[in-house]
């Protein structure tokens, strides 16, 4: 927990934070670590948190399964309050006993902001549906389309 009392009573104008999360096993990745840092400032009673999260993840391409690294930065901007108003609660972080759980904030942001699907390349060719070869590494030599045996079975069935 990060104590905000000194910020709230005015003895500090801003407070820096940094957090390391060693194993983000709560996100869908082969492996994931993250570090976050930022500043919390008191603007005459309005407590603002500004920072960024740097993930260091290994994820799988949704098409070909190849492992790729992902490290796009996530921006953290939120207001900290002691009670939630009913509008736009997403932008608010609730403090408890004049403190916030910065690790929990980083974890939640990772869950919300990390993509749910990754591609090794926008043009990833994926895997051959017949032999399972990675088509990014070249043609596997399987016939594609017209001679798919599944269609032959259907043709037989309809007597064509
Ligand atoms: Zn791929
Ligand atoms: Zn193939």
3D architecture notes:
This protein is an alpha+beta fold. The protein folds into 2 domains: 2-124, no CATH class; 127-160, no CATH class. Helix content is 16%, strand content 34%. The protein has helices spanning 5-8, 102-113, 149-157, and strands spanning 2-3, 14-21, 31-43, 46-60, 67-70, 74-81, 92-94, 99-100. Strands 2, 3, 4, 5, 6 and 7 form a 6-stranded mixed sheet that branches. The protein has a two-stranded antiparallel ribbon with strand order 1-8. Strand 3 and strand 4 (46-60) form a beta hairpin. It is elongated and about 80 Å long. Bound molecules: zinc ion (2 copies). One zinc ion is lined by residues 61, 63-64, 66, 119-120, 124.
Radius of gyration: 25 Å
| Coarse morphology | elongated
| Helical residues, percent | 10-25%
Q: List SSEs in N-to-C order.
A: EHEEEEEEEHH
Instruction: Kindly estimate the percentage of residues that lie in beta strands according to DSSP.
Output: 25-35%
Number of domains: 2
Look at the structure and give the mean pLDDT.
88
| Class of secondary structure makeup | alpha+beta
Number of helices: 3
Distance between the termini: 71 Å
What's the story with the biggest beta sheet? 6 strands, mixed
Low-confidence stretches: none
Bound molecules: zinc ion
**Strand segment count:** 8
Quaternary organization:
single chain
């Amino acid at each position: 927990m990060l104590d905000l009392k000194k910020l709230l009573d005015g003895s500090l104008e801003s407070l820096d934070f940094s957090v390391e999360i060693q194993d983000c096993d709560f996100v869908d990745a082969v492996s994931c670590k993250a570090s976050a840092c930022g500043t919390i400032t008191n603007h005459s009673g309005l407590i603002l948190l500004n920072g960024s999260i740097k993930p260091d993840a290994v994820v799988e391409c949704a098409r070909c399964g190849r492992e790729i690294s992902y490290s796009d930065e996530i921006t953290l901007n939120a207001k900290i309050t002691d009670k939630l108003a009913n509008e736009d609660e997403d932008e608010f972080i609730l403090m408890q006993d004049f403190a916030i759980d910065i690790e929990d904030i980083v974890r939640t942001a990772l869950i919300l902001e990390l993509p749910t699907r990754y591609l090794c390349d926008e043009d990833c060719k994926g895997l051959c549906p017949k032999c399972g070869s990675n088509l990014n590494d070249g043609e596997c030599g399987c016939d594609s389309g017209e001679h798919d045996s599944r269609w032959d079975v259907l043709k037989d069935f309809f007597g064509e």
